[in-house]
Amino acid sequence: VGVALLLEKIFYEEWMDKPRFPVIQGGMGGGISLEELASAVNYAGAMGVVSSVALDQFTSARVGEKLNQMEAAAREVADTKKACGFAAINIMVKLVRDYEASVEGAVKGGANMIISGAGLPIELPTLVEKFAGTKDHHIALVPIVSSARALRIIIERYWMNANHLPDAVVLAGPKCGGHLGFSYREIEASGENFLKDYDLFDVLLTPVLKLVKKYETKEHKIPVFVAGGIRTHEDVIHAIKQGATGVQVGTPFAASYESGACNDFKNTIIRSSNADVMLGSREWGSPTGYPFRYLRGSPLAQLGKNAENNYFCICSALLSSTKTDIPSRNGDCPWGYVKPLDKLCPANGKENVIPNRLYTSGTEIDGIKEIRHAADIVNELAGISCAEAK
Ligand SMILES: Cc1cc2nc3c(=O)[nH]c(=O)nc-3n(C[C@H](O)[C@H](O)[C@H](O)COP(=O)(O)O)c2cc1C
Fold it and tell me: Which of 112, 152, 304, 347 is deepest in the core (most CB within 10 A)?
């Protein structure tokens, strides 16, 4: 593979205006990946992704106008697209209350790609078709999975419901930041061997590639992007050699200048080592029901297990819908159902320590030593030296 990894034909479809590096900046909720970060990544030649989480608050604050979730998603996507003609959005299935509104906004804003995980995004093709008013919408639909089993269900349902195949797949391994697609039972059964038992390359990738081969056709390829702990150009080369088309990377971008994370979050990533990346146990788990990685140095983790708020709650209000009311795992959400996001997701970026915050991060963070520009991170992953980039 040459100095710079350019995507030529593999991931170059009508919905990509030009070839890009096979690097997706993972969508990061809670105001981390918004238009600013996604645009910077797009500008550098990779694929930037905004997260749909609480855009009604973040986008409204940015544009100084009260927007609902649908309007906000449309605006965030459209503003991202302005920078270089490409926009992708990550919409988590578990955010039941806002899922449809976010998909509608993504379509209205002109998204080129919708990436969706944290649950099985089975309804996605039907919803996009409904909001676009046509089957021929040219929006790439990209599910996130952690097993071939989940992917098989998604492919079969996509085909049955909407005659559609995924346009790409993100395979999220056990080293990922944010929520993990493995159950507590699987993690507990593996114990110390969890990372090995579910190794992204040795265990997860082969069956996913095999499955994809079974369904893809000459006209419709299904590229696989692997995620979790990918940090260097060598990691990207390794992923491609193993059969992946590209990678999805989160944590390094969370610590970039363009990330919406507060400074304390960025500095905590930089100060932390691999040993400080924890995997939440059931009591520390997220109300989504999925295990969640967090940094030992986060304000909430520092409070210790015996503190009154020894649990956290990710956007419980978003998880609850009129259809299904999902209470937070440990009883009442410490922030209540009314305005939990005021505390969980404070205004984008600049403020410092907020008690009760839990910072999430992938593993392999020893090498993240300073806040950098998103473009420098893209260049490093793509194997472009500073001199070449200039
Ligand atoms: C701060 C943070 C927030 C995240 N939020 C989301 C999210 O809202 N939706 C999602 O699908 N994945 C989310 N993720 C996972 C990332 O998109 C990505 O898959 C993962 O971070 C890749 O692993 P890495 O951080 O080791 O590179 C998040 C990750 C981080 C670090």
Answer: 112
R_g of the chain, CA atoms, integer Å:
19
- Ligand 1 probe mutation, 37, 169, 251, most atoms within 8 A of CB: 251
Residue 295 host element (H or E): strand 293-295
Identify which of 179, 194, 361 has the alpha carbon closest to the alpha carbon of residue 288.
179
Q: How many residues does the chain have?
A: 390
- pTM for the predicted model, two decimal places: 0.90
Query: Is the distance from the beta carbon of residue 125 to the nearest atom of ligand 1 less than 6 Å?
Result: no
> Do 169 and 143 touch, CB atoms closer than 8 A?
yes
What amino acid occupies position 379? N
Mutate to test the pocket of ligand 1, among 25, 28, 55, 76 (most ligand atoms within 8 A of CB): 28
Cα gap 47→279, rounded to integer Å: 28
Residue from 14, 50, 20, 10 nearest 168 by CA? 10
Output the furthest CA–CA distance in the chain (Å, rounded): 57
Phi, psi of 140 (to 5 degrees): -70, 130
Which residues pair with residue 206 across a beta bridge? none
Torsion angle in degrees (nearest 10) through CA of 182, 188, 189, 190? 80
Task: pLDDT tens for the chain, 390 residues: list them.
Answer: 444 566 544 455 555 666 778 999 999 987 889 999 999 999 998 999 999 988 888 888 889 899 999 999 999 999 999 988 899 999 998 777 789 999 999 999 999 999 999 889 999 999 999 999 999 898 999 999 999 999 999 999 999 988 889 999 999 999 999 889 998 889 989 999 999 999 999 999 999 999 999 999 888 889 999 999 999 999 999 999 999 999 999 999 999 999 988 888 889 999 999 999 988 766 555 556 678 888 888 876 665 543 334 344 443 334 333 223 333 333 333 332 223 333 333 333 444 445 556 788 999 999 999 999 999 999 999 988 755 655
Gap between the Cα atoms of 103 and 199, Å rounded:
32
C-alpha 240 to ligand 1 mean position (Å): 21
Counting Cβ atoms within 10 Å, is residue 22 exposed (0-12), middle (13-18) or buried (19+)? buried
